[in-house]
Amino acid sequence: MAIGVYLLWKLGIAHGDISLANMMCKKVAEKLVGILNDFDLATIMAPGERNPRMRGWQRTGTLPFMALELLKYPNGEVKRWYRHDLESSAWCLIYHMTQIRLDGWLNGTHDDVYDRKVGFGSKSARYSEKPEWERYVDFGIDWIRIWLGVDVQ
């Protein structure tokens, strides 16, 4: 999925709403291939633009999977960048790898969701692993903690 997001940005398309509902997979020649759909919040950039003209608060996306920076500054203080769509993909993966409950991530303000997501990365965060992802969960949790700037030792 990360390669697809990268290629879209290279083509000048910022998806802006990467979430589990907008991801699918299909079996092609005995391999699973990721498909990103639902481009209603996407923005097409002019040739040579490095980021879309929309700001963080415009066409926001799905709160549980939004990049932390866009949640922290919801009033347009930040430009959208490739890293925001990439981070949204990572939140989808973390959600899928664990059985975190999104109840607290679905409701509330941008600040509420930001605080809950940052709390997820703390050492005291609790989650239950899905058995099929057990060997990858520690890597995924360490990765998100590094992303959040939390000591992983």
What is the H/E string?
Answer: HEEEEHHHHH
Strand proportion, as a percent range, falls in: 5-15%
- What's the total helix number? 6
Main-sheet strand order equals 1-4
Low-confidence stretches: none
Blueprint (SSEs and pairs):
Elements: H1 2-10, E1 13-14, E2 23-28, E3 31-36, E4 43-44, H2 68-72, H3 82-97, H4 103-106, H5 110-120, H6 134-148
Antiparallel strand pairs: 1-4, 2-3
Q: What labels describe this entry?
A:
about 150 residues, two-stranded antiparallel sheet, alpha+beta
Describe the structure.
With about 150 residues, the protein is of the alpha+beta class. Helices cover about 40% and strands about 10% of the residues. The protein is built from six helices and four strands. The protein has helices at about 1-10, 70, 80-95, 105, 110-120, 135-150, and strands spanning about 15, 25-30, 30-35, 45. A two-stranded antiparallel sheet has the order 1-4. Helix 3 packs antiparallel against helix 6. It is globular. The model has no long low-confidence stretch (mean pLDDT about 80).
Question: Brief description of this entry?
Answer:
The chain has helices spanning 2-10, 68-72, 82-97, 103-106, 110-120, 134-148; strands at residues 13-14, 23-28, 31-36, 43-44. With 153 residues, it is of the alpha+beta class.
